[in-house]
Amino acid sequence: MVVKIKELPELERPYERLEYYGVENLSNEELLAILLKSGYKDRSSKELSTEILASLSSLADLKEITYEKLVSMKGVGKSKACTILASMELSKRIEDIDTELRNQKLTSSSMVYQYYKLKLGNKRQEHFYVVYLDNAKRIIRDKLLFIGTSNYSVVHPREIFKEAYLLSAAAIICVHNHPTGNVFPSKEDLEITEKLVKVGALLDIKVLDHIIVGKKNYYSFLENNDIGSAR
Q1: DSSP class of residue 120?
Q2: N or C: the chain end with fewer CB closer than 10 Å?
Q3: Calpha distance 120→103 (Å, rounded)
Q4: In whole angstroms, what is the distance from residue 227 CA to residue 231 CA?
């Protein structure tokens, strides 16, 4: 007998798991099951997603899958195929934006905000990114280093500067979000920024800015003269 998604315990259902644990904690099968929405007579959406993924050599193949291949699979059909292809195309376009960011020269705090509001504007937890730059302020890479609660993330300078050394970075920009929408820095934000500036000065790695991202606005330590000796 096929067990339908709605018959599963609440915290085993993909939609509910996403709501409670966050999208980043779902399995590949669960993410695809959400896109599929439903299965077919003999299979639940989760079982159908498992079948689709098992037919591929790797998860990366899903990005190149064709409409014809999808509709040829039992239980997929036009609507599901279009949903999957549309989501894959959006993913590719976001990756293109990420690629454009690499080696780009940062000229303003607002430029950083415009990029990260897409990544962080709707997150329910604090996410702390560090952007690593060369001597010409071109981006080497950015990295998500910490994820916290709805209003607090634990930031370790050791991890931030270890990555800077591995990348031979000359400077960094810190970026994190406030899920509450209030972008004014907390006491902890001020303290960690001051600590990072001091450690960076000792290591000859400049902390150029720390930007707090909200849904509609941002706070720049540099623009508000809060960055100390990193300016």
Answers
A1: H
A2: N
A3: 21
A4: 6
Angstrom distances, CA of residue 164 to CA of 130, 149, 205: 9, 25, 8
* Beta strands at 171-177 and 127-133: parallel, antiparallel or unpaired: antiparallel
State the Cα–Cα distance between residues 143 and 160, nearest whole angstrom.
9
Give the torsion through C-alpha atoms of 180, 97, 175, 172, to 10 deg: 180
Nearest-10 Cα torsion for 8, 14, 19, 25? 120
Global pTM exceeds 0.70:
no
Could you tell me where the beta strands, DSSP code E, fall in the chain?
127-133, 139-147, 171-177, 206-213, 218-220
| pLDDT tens-digit series, residues 108-134 | 898 889 888 888 877 888 999 999 999
Residues 196 and 203 sit within 8 Å (Cβ to Cβ): no
- Is residue 132 within 8 Å of residue 164, measured between CB atoms? yes
With b for 16 or more beta-carbon neighbours within 10 A and e for fewer, the 180-207 pattern comes to eeebebeeebeebbbebbeebeeeebbb
Residue 63: partners with Cβ closer than 8 Å, 6 or more residues away: 88, 91, 92
- Which residues, other chains included, contact 203 with Cβ-Cβ below 8 Å and sequence gap of 6+? 161, 164, 165
123 token code pair: 């997150």
What does the alpha-carbon distance between residue 163 and residue 226 come to, in Å, rounded to a whole number? 24
Burial category of 104 from C-beta neighbours within 10 Å (exposed 0-12, middle 13-18, buried 19 and up) = middle
- Burial-class residue 147 by CB neighbours within 10 Å (0-12, 13-18, 19+): middle
